[in-house]
Amino acid sequence: MRNLLVISGLLLALGACSPTLAPVYSPAQTAGVSAAGTPYTAAQIDAAAIAGAQAKGWTVISHAPGLTVAEVASGGHQARVRILTNDSGWRIVHEQSSPGLKFATDERHGEIIHRRYNHWVRLLDDAIRQHLALAPAPVETAPVAAPAI
After folding, report:
1. Cβ contact 101:20 at 8 Å
2. Separation of first and last alpha carbons in the chain
3. Is 47 helix (H, G, I), strand (E, B) or coil?
4. pLDDT of 13-61, one tens digit each?
5. Where do the DSSP E strands lie in 4-126?
6. Spatial contact of 103 and 95, defined as CB atoms under 8 Å apart
């Protein structure tokens, strides 16, 4: 019986030090400028967030200017994020996840989660960047001269 308790304790200790857990990845990116040298607009960044999410298999749950909520499910796991956008860039923030992704707050590391979540978010972040690079440059209109009187 004592050996069983020792083995159970060791298994619990190993589970607590799981190499599958990591700090939650919450990327914040600066949008920069288009290939034409003009800054991206908030609408372009917003559109890239939606297109990037959909390209990587995320489902857009809701959208409003500056905020896209997207969800992904794979292998019995689910995660939901908020993609916050404005004219200077975007940030991806964890909203909720299934119990199997083991989201928790740890005194030493802050928020932690299964590495799979971080992998999904990195792919999403890369897809947003790629779709933004494909965005057409903002159309600049020439000022209209006032009619001569």
Report:
1. no
2. 103
3. helix
4. 444 557 799 999 999 999 988 888 899 999 999 999 999 999 999 999 9
5. 21-23, 28-30, 59-64, 67-74, 77-86, 89-97, 104-106, 110-114
6. no
Specify the residue for token string 């857990």: 21
Q: How far apart are CA 109 and CA 91, in angstroms?
A: 20
Task: Write out the two tokens for 24.
Answer: 């939650």
Check if the beta carbon of residue 121 is closer than 8 Å to that of residue 41. Answer: no
The tokens describing 92, both together, are 């991806």
- Quote the CA–CA distance of 51 and 38 in Å, as a whole number: 21
How many C-beta neighbours within 10 Å does residue 74 have?
10
Q: What is the pTM of this model?
A: 0.80
